[in-house]
Automatic annotation (TrEMBL):
Cellular component, GO annotation: extracellular matrix
Descriptive protein name: Zona pellucida glycoprotein 3f, tandem duplicate 2
Signal peptide: 1-22
An annotated GO BP: positive regulation of acrosome reaction
InterPro entries documented for this protein: ZP-C (IPR055355), ZP-C_dom (IPR042235), ZP_dom (IPR001507)
Molecular-function GO terms, alphabetical: acrosin binding
Key words of the record: Disulfide bond, Signal
Matching SMART domains: ZP
Domain ZP intervals: 27-273
Amino acid sequence: MGTHLYLDLLVLAVFATTVINADINVVCANNSVRVTWRVNPELVPYAARLFLGNCMASQWNVLPSGEGEAQFNYTFSECKFTKMVKGKRIFYQNEMSYRPQAKPNPPDFVHPIECVYRRPKDWIPRFVNPGYGVSEGHGRLVFHMALLNEELSSIATTNIIPLGSPMPIWAAVEQKSHQPLLLLMEECVAAPTAELRPGSQVYPLIGNKGCLLESKKGNSMFLPRYHSSSIILYLQSFNFGFGEVYIHCKLAVWDPQNFAESKKACHYIKGTNR
């Protein structure tokens, strides 16, 4: 008799084509940006489909040549700009896009927008905790989670797990241009449903901000990391008390240079109090 294991997996698909030679001029000011976008005459009737992030053009002109000119004048607190601090520089990033169809349809093309500033010498972001010197990254993070095969060499080809067999659960975050990130599994539960609701039947696996509770009873553990942005939970399968099993995890990222008691990935070692 086997246990069926299902893992939630987020798949991010991007269909837009980046325009390399778009006629876009960017002027970065102290706390704002001015973008001028000149488009071909055939796009003039579709001026309302040109966007900076989620903002429409603040001014629109039709030139004598028949071309259109869209101007976007916005502060970095608008239009869903993302802010990233890396080393001695501060980055504000966004995208220009042309969307002939409404969301959720993808844009026909996108063009990256970036303003880069030197970080002031005494600058301290509002999300820094002065007591611990820990900073929090703000930006687009993509998380992954999957069941691995027993050799830990690739994604498992089946989700039918015999009782007592290992279930290596891999989680990772795409680090991209962010500062180094430490991925943690703060909480994990097993449940008979794909969605958790108040009153749902659950079996706790990880609690207490990252401690593997199941390691007290079985041979479950966290495997040594190859890099900080991913982690493997080596879970021994057992009878959860229901047929199909869905694993739900709360993932978090942290500064790998600054540990705290509430931010950890730990399991109990048999025969010791550790």
